[in-house]
Structures are given as structure tokens and as C-alpha cells.
Design goal:
This protein is of the alpha+beta class. The chain has helices spanning about 20-30, 30-45, 90-95, 105-115, 125-130, 135-145, 160-170, 175-185, 185-190, 195-200, 205-215, 275-305, 310-315, 325-330, 335-345, 375-390, 395-405, 415-420, 430-440; strands spanning about 50, 235-240, 245-250, 255-260, 345-350, 350-355. A four-stranded mixed beta sheet has the order 3-2-5-6. It starts with 18 loop residues before the first helix and ends with a helix. One of its GO terms (cellular component) is DNA-directed RNA polymerase complex.
């Protein structure tokens, strides 16, 4: 066998994902706040790049109107500057100082305070806290009994039963039957009222009277504190009614602007010329990439709004089925581009503020002559039917499937069960038990 070397030539095309292309792809799914942080980081390394942020909104003392109010600026949420009051830690510290404890007890109480969970319970067992506080287990029990006198009742409880027991004792509700119910909370959690009656040795009417009192107690007394409003992420797209239909705009109040400072390049000369050219090129590319990101976002948002006009006017029941491919074909971009844009952005509509990806939902089969419904609309219908059902006769999955099928959308029982689980709705048997526990029956 003879071996030899040879050269051959071939021509082929391939797509190379450069670093700039990767960055441009990442820009597509960045919300406005994240985009601002990225541009600010780039401007710190590039003397020819400047981040220009929109002016801060004027503080408002008035509460914001509903999200459904057309024309509302999202920045009105800055008006929610109410005083949240003292934190749980500050409140308990002040209460401990009023108990008249000894110096040794005060030092040990600080260990208990550090173990306090945000909802007001002790987060660690007493067997571990006692040696850390330098106390015997008996002394720790005595100190804990003093801490249980702190208002609101239920703080420093070691379990749900103890938390409710402390509150019931303070309100004069701790009868032998009430104590027996607290000893069998597992049966109450399973909504087994008949088993609870047998365990407590009482009738159903007596048990229901105790449950009405139990519902008036607070299982998490620490949650009364630290009630500052959680920050809300502003939307990236705003939808409002216009003269020719629905209008989509970028949220300019949070949208950053890239400014290329090409006029400062003349301050550099000589050996810095290669550096100047490279930095200017990067700054100009970033400005074009951000503008492309904004235009792509606006086009995709406009197409989504065009297809979901029924939802904007009538709510979730009119959510139309829509796929990534349909929007991509209509806009003229790749399906992956639509996926990236919709996964990271929020859109404010008259029905509320939602992730853009929530508008993409599959179509369900329909009878001949009927319009196919979307999975989101059917889930909304399932929720409506459960909310309107009679507590003593809740709808089974089969009954819900029949009702929705009679309305035109073919639906199987297992599909109803899947949607019900997605909505965190218990089964009909569990719903009836919960109605018994809450006193609805």
C-alpha cells in the first residue's frame, strides 16, 4: 500500500458567533434596569461612551391609581413612601427592655432574639439556644415564659400550636375543647373534621364554634411588622388606547440612552490612535446594538398587542392562542429572537402588568364551527367555575370538562386536572373539606 499526501480545496458557509454577536443576543432579553447597569459598566471602560438616564420622576404624595388607568406613568409607584413603622427586631428589643429582666437574663434574651424568625417564631430548638445563652434548660424555659408576655401574643412560640395557644390564653378562649383541638392540628390540616370530633370527644356544632374562634387568631404575629411595600419592577413596554386602536410604546422613563462622544477623540493623538479607533468602534457598535434592541422589542410588542386585542378589551377570558413562530414570521425575525425578547421583558396593559411571555399560549382543539381557545383562557375559565361553585357541591374535574366542552372547546378530564394543579386549586373533595373547616358550610 502506497501512502501520499494531497491538498484539496472546498468552499462552505458557516455562521461564527462572535463576541459582539453574543453580546447583541444578550441585549435582547435585558430589561431596562439591567440594560442601564450594563451600559454604565461599559462606559467606565470606554472614554467615548456615555450613559444618559431619563430624569428622575418628581416625588408624589398621592397614591397611584390602578394599573388599568390609561396613561398612568409607572413611576407613580414612587409615591408609596408610607412609614412602615418599627421592624420586628426593634419592637421586640424595646419590649424586652420593659420586662425588667436581670443583666444575665437580658444577655440571654438577646440570643433568643437573634433566633427569632420574621414571622415571630423561634427558629431553633430550646436545647440549642440554652447552652449558647449560658443557661440551663430549666432556666431557659423560665426566660421563655417571660418572653411569651411580649405583645403581640404568640411571639417566641416554638410551634404553630404553641403560637395559637398563647393567643387563645390571652383572649380567654383556651377551654379544654380548644386545647384538645390544638393538640390535634394535624387532623385539622387534613380537613378531617369527623376524625377531629372523635379525637376531641365533641359534636360537630361544638367543633365549628371552636374553629370560628381559631380563625380569629394570627398564626404569624411577626408578619405584622416589616410591612414596607415590596419594590415593583417597572415594565419595559406600555400599552395604551389610541385613535386607531391600541398603541405600544417603550417605557422611556426607565430606558437608558447611549451617547457616543466622538468629538473627544481629537484630544488623543500619536501613539493613542489605534486605541482611539478601537474604543470608538466599540462605542458606535453598542449604540447601534441598543437601538436595534429597542426597535426589535417594539415590533414584537406591537405584534403581540395586535393579536391580543380581545384580552386588552375584555380580559383573560379572551386570550388568543399564539406561538413564537407566528409572531416571528409576522415580524420577520427568527423564532429564537422572539423567545429571548419575551422571556425578559414586562408589558403594562389595561388589564395589569405581565411578563411578555405569558401571552404565548397553545391552542386547544374546538368543535367544528367554533373558535379554538387558548390554554390561558381555559385556565381562567376553570378558575371562574371553581370560584362560582357551591361550597357544599363543588365541581368535579369531569363536570368542569363537560361545561367547557359544551362552550365549544374540547377538553379532557386529565387536562382539567393539570390546569387545576397549575392554578394551585385542590380537588373537589379537598375543596369541600376546606369549606367545612372555614365555616362556609
Amino acid at each position: 500500500m502506497q501512502l501520499y499526501t494531497a491538498q484539496s480545496f472546498a468552499q462552505r458557509q458557516s455562521l461564527v458567533v462572535t463576541a459582539q454577536l453574543q453580546q447583541a443576543i444578550c441585549l435582547l432579553q435585558m430589561p431596562n434596569a439591567e440594560l442601564s447597569s450594563f451600559i454604565e459598566t461599559q462606559s467606565e471602560e470606554n472614554p467615548f461612551l456615555e450613559l444618559r438616564l431619563p430624569p428622575a420622576p418628581a416625588p408624589s404624595s398621592a397614591l397611584p391609581r390602578s394599573q388599568a388607568a390609561a396613561g398612568d406613568d409607572w413611576d407613580r409607584v414612587a409615591g408609596l413612601a408610607a412609614d412602615p413603622g418599627p421592624s420586628l427586631y426593634v419592637h421586640v428589643t424595646a419590649e424586652i427592655a420593659r420586662l425588667g429582666l436581670t443583666a444575665e437574663e437580658s444577655a440571654a434574651a438577646s440570643v433568643f432574639l437573634d433566633a427569632l424568625e420574621p414571622w415571630g417564631w423561634l427558629g431553633q430548638p430550646l436545647e440549642l439556644l440554652a447552652p449558647r445563652a449560658g443557661l440551663s434548660l430549666e432556666a431557659a424555659e423560665r426566660l421563655l415564659a417571660k418572653l411569651h408576655r411580649i405583645e403581640p401574643a404568640g411571639l417566641f412560640a416554638r410551634s404553630l400550636a404553641e403560637c395559637l395557644r398563647l393567643q387563645a390564653s390571652e383572649q380567654g378562649l383556651l377551654t379544654p375543647l380548644f386545647a384538645a383541638v390544638l393538640d390535634h392540628l394535624s387532623l385539622l390540616a387534613a380537613a378531617d373534621l369527623r376524625g377531629l370530633c372523635r379525637a376531641c370527644g365533641c359534636g360537630m356544632e361544638e367543633l365549628k364554634a371552636v374553629l370560628r374562634q381559631l380563625r380569629g387568631l394570627n398564626p404569624k404575629p411577626g408578619a405584622l411588622f416589616d410591612a414596607a411595600p415590596s419594590p415593583q419592577r417597572p415594565p419595559d413596554l406600555l400599552v395604551s388606547p389610541g385613535p386607531d386602536g391600541w398603541r405600544v410604546d417603550l417605557n422611556r422613563s426607565t430606558l437608558p440612552t447611549v451617547v457616543v462622544r466622538a468629538d473627544t477623540a481629537q484630544d488623543f493623538a500619536g501613539s493613542a490612535a489605534p486605541y482611539v479607533g478601537e474604543r470608538l468602534s466599540v462605542a458606535r457598535w453598542l449604540a447601534r446594538a441598543v437601538e436595534h434592541r429597542n426597535q426589535t422589542t417594539l415590533k414584537i410588542g406591537a405584534e403581540v398587542v395586535r393579536r391580543q386585542r380581545g384580552f386588552l378589551e375584555e380580559g383573560p377570558a379572551r386570550m388568543e392562542p399564539m406561538t413564537l413562530r407566528e409572531v416571528a414570521d409576522a415580524v420577520g425575525v427568527h423564532e429564537s429572537t422572539v423567545s429571548r425578547v419575551s422571556s425578559g421583558l414586562m408589558i403594562a396593559t389595561p388589564q395589569g402588568t405581565f411578563p411578555l411571555k405569558s401571552f404565548f399560549t397553545a391552542a386547544l382543539s374546538a368543535r367544528e364551527g367554533d373558535t379554538a381557545g387558548s390554554a390561558a383562557a381555559v385556565r381562567h375559565r376553570v378558575r371562574q367555575l371553581v370560584q362560582a361553585e357551591s361550597p357544599d357541591d363543588p365541581l368535579s374535574d369531569d363536570a368542569i370538562a363537560r361545561i367547557i366542552s359544551d362552550e365549544g372547546v374540547t377538553l379532557a378530564r386529565r387536562t382539567v386536572a393539570k390546569y387545576r394543579e397549575q392554578l394551585n386549586i385542590p380537588s373537589s373533595v379537598q375543596r369541600r373539606r376546606q369549606a367545612l373547616v372555614t365555616g362556609a358550610l
